[in-house]
Amino acid sequence: MNSGPVKAYLETEQGGRIDCLFNPAELQIRKSNRWFAPAVAGRNAPNLIFQRGEAGTLTMTLWFDTTDSGKAVTEYTSKLLDLMKVDPSLGDTTDPQVKSGRPPWVRFNWGQLNSFKAILTSLDITFTYFASTGVPLRARASVSLQQFADEGKWPLQNPTSGTPSPHTVHQVLAGETLDRIAARHYGDAGRWRTIAEANAVLDPLRVAPGTLLVIPQVEAVARA
């Protein structure tokens, strides 16, 4: 029986862990180098001199949904906000007299994909669904991470290294059923069980509109 896709999570500097309820649909990585162009008369173009590499960045969007449990989704979003707070026990100096403090670094992990140590430079949380009592049950978080130190590693790996296949996130529309969703993504309505198992859906006929479902890629389904 398919045990479902590997879940991504953020590992914190203090040894904590923030689980991603849904794997990100895409990751964006940026890296740039700085070069110096000396002014030399009489040449068509200068010979560039390397100066330094700039810190890499990793951006993604994470989805959180607690409609099944009824608990406030802030249980997860508050942990992300805590990553922006200054921790007085952390610092960037060797002088014990200086107590500057700083926010902790984190590392994004997804199966065999592991990012560099990074600090959270930007966090944008949008609450998209609420219970009748006003409790937030669904949220979308746009996360921007920046490389914290030179570790000589990057989060992209060779596809042959065993890195799990990426997954798509599908938001259920009114009137949609798992078999129709399977037909849309796989061209085969009979694969609805794969989606049900990947998302721990107990009743495939009662999936509420707005629910976010992980849709394993065809390659991952074929290997299951």
Report a brief summary of the structure:
It is built from four helices and twelve strands. The chain is α+β, with helices and mostly antiparallel strands and 224 residues long. The chain folds into two domains: 1-152, Elongation Factor Tu (Ef-tu), domain 3 (Beta Barrel), CATH 2.40.30; 165-224, LysM domain (Membrane-bound Lytic Murein Transglycosylase D, Chain A, Roll).
Describe the structure.
There is one protein chain. Helix 2 crosses helix 3 (192-198). The radius of gyration is 22 Å and the shape is globular. It folds into 2 domains: 1-152, Elongation Factor Tu (Ef-tu), domain 3, CATH 2.40.30.200; 165-224, Membrane-bound Lytic Murein Transglycosylase D, Chain A. The protein has a 4-stranded antiparallel sheet with strand order 2-1-7-8, covered by helices on one side. It has helices at residues 74-82, 178-186, 192-198, 218-223, and strands at residues 9-12, 17-19, 27-30, 33-36, 49-53, 57-65, 106-110, 113-114, 118-130, 136-147, 167-171, 212-216. With 224 residues, it is of the alpha+beta class. It contains 4 helices and 12 strands; from the N terminus they run E-E-E-E-E-E-H-E-E-E-E-E-H-H-E-H. The termini are close together. The relative contact order is 0.18.
